[in-house]
Amino acid sequence: MTAGTNTGTNTGTTAGTEGLEFIPPAKPIIGDEERAAVDRVMRSGMLAQGPEVAAFEVEFAEHFGLGRACVAVNSGTSGQHLGLLSCGVKAGDEVIVPSFTFAATANSVALTGATPVFADIAADDFGLDPAAVEAAITERTVGIMPVHLYGHPAQMDGLMAVAQKHGLQVFEDAAQAHGASLNGTPVGAFGSFAMFSLYPTKNMTSGEGGMVSVANEQVERMMRLYRNQGMEKQYHNEVVGFNNRMTDIHAAIGREQLKKVDGWTKQRQANAAFLTENLSGVVTPPVAPGAVHVYHQYTVRVPEDRDGFAAALKSEYAVGSGMFYPVPNHQLAPFADAPHADLPQTAKAAAECLSLPVHPSLSSAHLERIVTAVNALAKAGA
Ligand SMILES: *Cc1c(COP(=O)(O)O)cnc(C)c1O
């Protein structure tokens, strides 16, 4: 499950919401342009990785001002996995990751044979705390993987400083953060590589897919090898690789979405500004100085009975919401043995976070209903 998919499908009206249209927590937008692009590829007869993928890679890097090459793959998770392999991460290594994220972050580390080591997030922020990261470093640590969670950049100044001091690589999980930036630097331009997810609920989609920005030609070459069975020249395999290629059908969708994503981001930001101005009784999401937040999620903190709050939003006001993520990764079965210090801010965020609809399809009536609902429930609970 990814952001927006594990809560609130439209189950019709419930008691008290008769006649109210359900406001979903996420809504992918697919237009005639995407349909025509798919049709164009279908008619070409060339469906697998080809010219559409090559063009999408160049256009993506240019669009977000990354100043580096991009490599397209079949999902964000495979992008992270191949990125780590391409940067030399292997069994016996440790990579420091947040526990408060989608499990793909730690999964990608574990899939290389390395160990994910969980560090806490900052108190007023949902991203890795540089001091907690520094405290988690051992002689086996090779890298840090911050997540630009919800579309807000992680504390890259502090994290890059820790990495530099200890000779570590930085790998960015930018799955949720297309277009976000910190002090003018776009996310995706900091680390040895960065992964952007193109899953349908993310800020832009290709159906499924991932785009990986790479810091240098060596990482780029390895990414391209691992993506394609280890082949640069056909049938002259150089390493053990995967088939993690993106299809031209998916790339064609992504290229059309790229033309629209800036408009959607502006709408997300306007929706978020309205919510922050009008919500009361919940803690609205902070934006760090110098940060551009692209609001993949608009996540408030509900200090008391978050689950009851979410249930009432749905049953009394037909407002969908999401919890990203209610179970910290260090408590998931696959990571039960992974090392971690105490993670008090992770536990607190997992108990309090609630993502309200912020997607670009919301009408002003939807936004008004969300504000009315949240403020009434917060007041009743106070
Ligand atoms: C969506 C997501 C991923 C994985 O991307 P997929 O394209 O779904 O494989 C990884 N990390 C985070 C934080 C995500 O939200």
What can you see in these coordinates?
The chain has 382 residues and is of the alpha/beta class. 37% of the residues lie in helices and 12% in strands. The chain has 2 domains: 32-258, 3-Layer(aba) Sandwich (Aspartate Aminotransferase, domain 2), CATH 3.40.640; 261-380, Alpha-Beta Complex (Aspartate Aminotransferase, domain 1). It is built from 12 helices and 12 strands. The strands form 3 sheets. The chain has a 7-stranded mixed β-sheet with strand order 1-9-8-5-4-2-3, with helices on both faces. Helix 4 (104-111) links the parallel strand 2 (94-98) and strand 3. It is globular, with a radius of gyration of 21 Å. The model is unreliable at 1-14 (pLDDT under 50). It binds pyridoxal-5'-phosphate (PLP). Pyridoxal-5'-phosphate binds next to helix 3 and helix 4.
